[in-house]
Amino acid sequence: MLVAVYYNNKEIPVEEFPMPEIGEEEVLLKVMASGICGSDVLEWYRLPKAPRVLGHEATGVIEQIGKKVVSNLKVGDRVFVSHHVPCNACVYCKKGHHTACETLHNTNYFPGGFSQYIKVPKINVQLGIYKLPDALTFEEGTFIEPLACVARGQRLVNIQKDDTVLIIGSGISGILHVQLAKFKGAKKVIVADINSYRMSIAVKFGADYAFNSDDSLPQKIKALNEGRLADRVIVCTGATSAVTLSTACIEKGGTILFFAVPEPSVKIPLPLNQFWRNEITIQTSYGAAPNDLEEALAVLATKKLDVKNMITHRLPLREAQEGFRLMTNNGESLKIIIEPNNPNL
User: What is the DSSP letter of 216?
Assistant: First the structure.
């Protein structure tokens, strides 16, 4: 079979791998679509484990099922497969911190979503396969994982219906945050970015306002929010300037969610005295757990979020390198889908 092997953002050749052979408790998935995630192009995050086959938003058709698989799955089922699954038994899982679970961080399917086929291990078969509703396409199904990450973050910061929400960074995750916050009934959703195309896209997908990410942002928020800053600030970019800006835009008693973070070498001072005086909360979120995936699937099934029109590019596996170029170019692209087995591409 063919796979796209990641060496770095500019070197992703298509190579031949042996077809995976599944065990008695495993499943073989024919990959129909797999989205390129923003984290896929973070070289500080990806290079230490390169070369490898990336892709963790895979949907497809079950091609083979091991004879000892105990489930209601059958060959031909249309499914989404979670690449990471928690044990549901450790201290972290029991406290609701499933994405801190060591099992979650050490499970994965093989070799990755940017391949024609993937082998799904036993634990992922048991805890990480979700059937797609008939109304949900393979492409739309690739949004289950990124939307689940967004749902987890918003649950942790407890967005309320009367909240004013500021989202800094309007890439894929930022736009999903916009749509989910509006779906949940947030009073105002404001987006800040430095890219005019991304700002226009944010408004298209439901943001009430979109502003440039500069020092004037706090005053702009106050001007349209009865003199108050944002109740929730969600940082969806690793730019260090976004961290500083978030602290200037948060209202007393508010919460800042760091959905994206700078690379590990970056050290950023925080105004802890201001946070202490105003009871401001800092929250992080990482990945998604089964309950988040279930929520995302349920939300997508309502068809009230427009993910189909977030897709700007559909590419065959042989053009994976072009997909990564588009992602890193910050031009007029948003969601890029690789379709390894689409005969029409």
Answer: T
Tokens of 306: 């427009």
For the segment 54-77, what is each residue's pLDDT rounded down to a tens digit?
999 999 999 999 999 988 999 999
- 341 and 116 Cβ atoms separated by less than 8 Å: yes
**49-53, 286-290, 330-334, range with the lowest pLDDT:** 330-334
The alpha-carbon radius of gyration of the chain (Å, integer) is 20
- Considering only residues 332 and 175, tell me which one the structure prediction assigns the higher pLDDT: 175
Concatenate the DSSP letters of all residues of 108-162 into one string.
--BS-SSBSEEEE-HHHHHHSEEEPPTTS-HHHHTTHHHHHHHHHHHHHHT--TT
Contact call for residues 120 and 109 (beta carbons, < 8 A) = yes
Spatial separation of the C-alpha atoms in residues 21 and 3, rounded to whole Å: 16
Residue 206 Cα to chain centre, angstroms: 18
The vertex-191 CA angle with 186 and 196, nearest 5°, equals 150
Q: Give rounded-to-5 percent helix, strand, coil for the chain.
A: 35, 25, 40
* Residue 17: exposure state from Cβ atoms within 10 A (0-12, 13-18, ≥19): middle
Q: Note whether 17 and 10 are within 8 A (CB).
A: no
Q: Which amino acid is at 107?
A: T
Q: What is the CA 113 to chain-centroid distance, rounded?
A: 14
- In this structure, are residues 310 and 286 in contact, taking their beta carbons and an 8 Å threshold? no
Section 102-109 average pLDDT: 96
Report pLDDT digits (tens) over 107-129: 999 999 999 999 999 999 999 99
More confident position, 330 or 285: 285
Q: Is the peptide bond before 51 cis (omega within 30 degrees of 0)?
A: yes
Cα angle: 105, vertex 107, 110; to 5 degrees: 130
> Which of 127-131, 198-202, 269-273 shows the lowest mean pLDDT across its residues?
269-273
Residue 116 corresponds to which tokens in the numbers above? 């024609």
Length of the chain: 345
pLDDT (0 to 100) of residue 332: 83
